Each structure stands twice: as C-alpha cells, then as structure tokens.
Request: fold
Amino acid sequence: MRLLKLTELRDVSLEEIQRAARCWAREQRTNPKAQSYGNSASFFVYAAKKWLRFHGRLKRPSAPPMRFADQLNYFARYMAEEQGFSPYSVRSHCAKTSKFLEWFGERHRLLTRAKIEDVDEFLAMKGAGRWSRRSVSVAAQALRAFFRYAETRGWCATGFAKGIQGPKIYKYEGVPGGPSWEQVCRLLRSVKGSNPAVRRARAILSLLAIYGLRTGEVSRLMLRDFDWREEEYVRKGTKLYIEGKLQTTSWQDRQSGEKKYRTEIVARDLVLLGSCENRQNATAQAAGHGLDTEPSPAVVEDNIPF
Reply:
C-alpha cells in the first residue's frame, strides 16, 4: 500500500507494480531482518498482482491492434446478426480465424494476397504442432466460413473458400486401438499357476481373446451353456439347427374370458452350425502363437474355476 501509494482502491498498472517492486527490493537489501532478498522483487509483483486482480483493480496493458482486426469484427457481427450463430460458435470461429490472420499478417500486409497455399501451410504447421486432427478440421471449417464472407466483401478472390480442405475425421477415430495379438498371447502366457483364481482368470481371458466374447457375455455364462464332451458352448448369436415340430396350445383366460394361444418349439435334435469350424480356427490361431491347445482332462464340477 505504501509503495504503491494507495490511499484508496484504484486501478494500478503493471509499470507501477514493477517500480514499487524495485523499491521493495532495495529496502530489503538494507533490512537486517531479511534473510534473503534475491526474489523480493518477483514475489512483490506476484503478491500485488494477485491482490489487485482479486479486487478487480489490476490494469492490464491494452493488446496491440491486430492486423485485419476490422475484418474479423465484421465477420463476427455477420455470424451473430445475419447467420444466427450461437455465441460459442462465434467465439470458436473467431478464435481459429484470428490465429490464421495473426500468422498471415506477419507475412503480408493485404488480405487480397492470400492464397490457398497459405491456408494449407498454416493448417499443416498447426497439425504438426499441438493441434489434433479435429482441431485442424474445425479451423479449416472456420476459415472456409471467413473466406466465404470475405468473397462477398471483395477481400479475396471468388471461389477461394471452396479450395480450403481440412483433414477427414473418421467416425471411430477417437476410439483407442486394442492390443496386438502378440501382446494378447504374452498376457495369456503370463497367467501361470493352478489355484482357482489363476485358472478363473486364464479361462476368462481365453474366452475374451480367442473366442471374442464380450464382458457381458462372459459374466452371464452358466455351466449349462457348455457341452463339456463336445467342447462346445451356446451363446447369444450362435447359429443353431433345430429339428422338431411346432406345437400350439390354447386356454381360456379366467379374468377376461378370452381364448389365448401359445406356440412352442418341441425340439428333437439341436446342432451348432459352424461351431466346429470356429473351434478349429481358434485352436489353430492359438497354437500358432505357442498357446496351450491340448484337450482338457475330464471336467469335475468342483474344479471348474467359474
């Protein structure tokens, strides 16, 4: 307060804070109680800025006017008033466009000198930096909208916006890739031991990796889903051949008095279609990577790990 000469709250500029910080540092050099004064000035600036910012009295230096600022303001007003864009879309388009105009303004004085190659170079530079493919695509979309408006104002050549192309964004581009088959085999081989927990883990991992079951399908598996003699199992989506007949029964509803019907399938034989081929393919694939594919011994329910 003393060094800043604050008799009451007022706006304080950064220059005033820095002058006061230098005075504070000189005072600390002559203060016998001060243990160190090397960072006195920087700490004074930090504390003063934080205190003034809290009270809303920190006077920030005005940013130098950006080249093509008027064109950007016209574009923002056009999007908000004539196109009806949301405030978020206006800010997003202006932010991306201002990056390009700032970069382009360091190279050319006139917007009429802009070429498609300049836009491509800018997007490639940002893509090689910290911008993701989606950010580059959004920037290309914003620049197309800006130059489409610039064409109507005569700031650039006609048809300029059509030449701006951004990277293609695929539907599942953001989905992380799964592990390679070598990594899966290494994981399966790492599960060693004979205790129930290890055997359960190996059985679940094998069902997930080799047979492609989903986690929900594994969690719903029951012992009756497996044919232990034929080494087959039935799950949702499995192709079945059922031989039998349709049987329709009827009864009288006691409450409504209506006659109702029910049709049932009376099966005499059931065959899993494609199960042998799938089992052979999975076994061959596992065997090719050194996994154990020998037939399992006789199954005893007490030893089943799940």
